[in-house]
Amino acid sequence: MRLTDIHCHILPGIDDGAANGKMTVSMLRKAYAEGVRRIIVTPHYRRGMFEPPMDKVYKRYLQVRKKASEIGAFGIEVYLGCEYHRHSDMAEVLESGRRPTMAGSRYVLTEFSSVDPYSRVRGTLYELVTAGYIPIIAHAERYQAFFENMENVADASALGAMIQINADSLVGESGFKTKQFCKKLMKKDMVQFIASDAHNIKDRPSRLGQCAKYVERKWGRDRALRIFEENPSRIIGR
Predict the structure, then answer these.
(1) Residue 122: which of 154, 94, 98, 100 has the closest Cα?
(2) CATH code, 129
(3) Domain that holds residue 54
(4) How many CB atoms lie within 10 A of CB 20?
């Protein structure tokens, strides 16, 4: 499989991800070894916590894109995105171009606080959808509103949102209960994307290759291809 990672923190010195260029290269090499051939870099944007200037983000993105093209025999294609923590003016900020969507598409990787009530989650999703965006809910397994009531996941999907879970969570690195929840989502075919959410090599590395093999073994190659290749291609446009 030609894996695509739609959520990772590989830009150096931008957020709580890669600290420097050396770490970025190590992360790229690991991703390539796992079978990753396309990455959407998704630096955090969260008011009061992560507000990197866009000129700096874009400069680092161009640097990483060049480095990635030189990794391995075939290189890795890199696209620019953003992990956007929910805020009342998200649609306005996106429309103005002050923060990027996913690879220039209408998809938006959307993060919530773990304790946000579902009413807040749903309100944010509704605003994005009515503005013409397709929200991808980042690491959906982390939110109490979903973990405690799977009907909320179904409702979010019916509203037009897509569901992304982390590879770590599905392979058991985030605990038994989280793995079981992710397996329930998979059994109900509620997951459109699985991503690494990698921040470094040591304590938050990518396990996307391991997870892709697990998904193929447990749910079949067609499902794995859809999650790791076909659905990401809809974001990238090819």
Answers:
(1) 154
(2) 3.20.20.140
(3) 3-236
(4) 10
